[in-house]
Write a structure and sequence with these properties.
The protein is mainly alpha-helical. 73% of the residues lie in helices and 2% in strands. A hairpin with a 3-residue loop joins β1 and β2. α1 packs across α4 and α1 crosses α5.
């Protein structure tokens, strides 16, 4: 795993931000379609949901496409649930900010995760790894050396967003 990270760190950064931004857009569309109102998702101000990017990185590191699709689906379900639980725990216990609460949902654990949402995230994770990741990799390859500049812009904006949220919001 360490070799993979060292060899592909630039792609990991790029894909983290691409997935985080795409998930932010999906969350907005979901809110508009289901709640009929515009809601900014996530804990940061910028156009990203880092929990999705983090989950995607974990999937890249631990899901092997050569394994059985059923086995990978279960693995994706477990990984997505762990990341979601940890994100909720850190946000709630350390920063005292509850992002979501599944207490009223079937088979929830401390209101942080529930079976239905874990299953939905597993489906999304499966689609992302098997169908969207190859497309994302092609974009990355086609951008060539420009990826370094794009990553730098992403990183600077992301840390500026974190700074603003910690000290001013």
């Amino acid at each position: 795993m360490i070799k993979f990270i060292k060899r592909h760190w630039n792609y990991l950064i790029f894909s983290f931000f691409c997935v985080s931004i795409a998930a932010w857009c999906l969350e907005i569309l979901y809110s508009l379609a289901i709640r009929c109102k515009f809601v900014l998702p996530g804990t940061l101000t910028g156009p990203w949901c880092p929990v999705y990017g983090t989950t995607f990185l974990a999937l890249l590191l631990f899901v092997q496409k050569k394994d059985s699709p059923v086995y990978n689906f279960v693995k994706i379900l477990v990984i997505a649930s762990i990341v979601e639980y940890l994100a909720s725990f850190i946000s709630g216990e350390i920063f005292h900010h509850v992002i979501w609460d599944y207490s009223d949902r079937f088979m929830n654990i401390n209101g942080r995760i529930c079976l239905g949402m874990s299953f939905l995230f597993a489906i999304l994770g499966y689609i992302t790894i098997y169908y969207l990741e190859p497309w994302l990799r092609r974009i990355y390859v086609n951008l060539g050396r420009n990826v370094n500049k794009i990553n730098l812009v992403f990183i600077v904006c992301f840390f500026f967003d974190i700074f603003i949220n910690i000290f001013f919001i």
